[in-house]
Design brief:
Layout: E1 6-15, E2 18-28, E3 33-37, H1 44-52, E4 59-64, E5 67-68, H2 74-79, E6 82-85, H3 97-109, H4 123-136, H5 151-164, E7 169-173, H6 181-192, E8 199-203, H7 207-213, E9 216-221, E10 224-229, H8 231-236, H9 238-243
């Protein structure tokens, strides 16, 4: 078996007597389109915070491409290609779209300290950022301030910023959160068009989005994996209907 793009082994986390991650074994294959779902309080955010380094586990290991990254800081994990978007955009709203993406590219190659003034000195960085926007179909917004954009458009820019870091593993934390229903299709189209060599983990409540994008789904409940499988298996599993979709089995 080849190394996983991202893997956790017996990943655990406790706050005192409260167990929020319970020996989670998880494997994200290279090029995967994988979703992590579960009811509120299931431990999804805790799991992502552990994987990205925002929290340090009480036990277990985190690996990328077979290499143990459990002890690495968040910035070091980003350098290795582990990139996360957030439920709420973390963009520089007072800068243009192009400037936001340019800063991400500059950070990746180590020239962020001198990128904004004067920008002309980093022509290759700016050209790479613009080419990325063009590839994602949002180059028309390149010179607009982020705060001028509709929220759905801002989510697209956030994905562009993440891609500017050249991720190997991309964690999309509720990419359609707060996006009006009329704009969510554009977000889905963008995600579907992402490079096939990027392994993607989607943390999402929108089941329509999950079942459209994911080839494999993991259901987390009370900090532990309840079940994992293909979308059809998850949709028909009575345990999922009971704890996640709110249905109850009848005797």
């Amino acid at each position: 078996m080849s190394d996983a793009a991202l893997e956790t082994r017996a990943l655990s986390m406790s706050f005192g007597a409260l167990r929020v991650a319970n020996a989670i074994d998880f494997r994200l294959e290279p090029g995967a389109r994988h979703a992590l779902i579960g009811p509120n309080g299931a431990g999804k955010t805790t799991f992502v915070n552990l994987v990205t380094g925002a929290l340090h586990p009480s036990g277990g290991r985190i690996l990328m491409g077979g290499a143990d990254v459990t002890g690495l800081a968040q910035a070091e994990r980003v350098k290795r290609g582990l990139v996360r978007t957030f439920q709420i955009t973390t963009l520089f709203r007072g800068l243009t779209v192009l400037e936001n993406v340019t800063l991400a590219v500059a950070e990746r190659i180590g020239v962020a300290g001198g990128i904004v003034r004067p920008a002309g000195r980093r022509r290759a960085v700016i050209e790479e950022a613009y080419a990325l926007l063009d590839r994602l179909g949002i180059a028309d917004d390149a010179l607009r301030l982020v705060k001028e954009l509709a929220y759905g458009r801002q989510r697209m820019v956030e994905i562009a910023v993440a891609l500017g870091l050249k991720p190997k593993v991309l964690l999309l934390d509720e990419p359609a959160a707060g996006v009006p229903s009329g704009e969510s299709g554009t977000i889905i189209d963008l995600i579907e068009g992402l490079p096939a060599d990027i392994s993607i983990l989607i943390i999402e409540h929108d089941m329509d989005l999950v079942f459209r994008l994911a080839r494999r789904i993991t259901v987390l409940v009370q900090g532990a994996v309840l079940v994992e499988g293909a979308p059809a298996e998850i949709a028909s599993d009575p345990r999922v209907r009971q704890v996640y979709l709110g249905e109850r089995e009848h005797a």
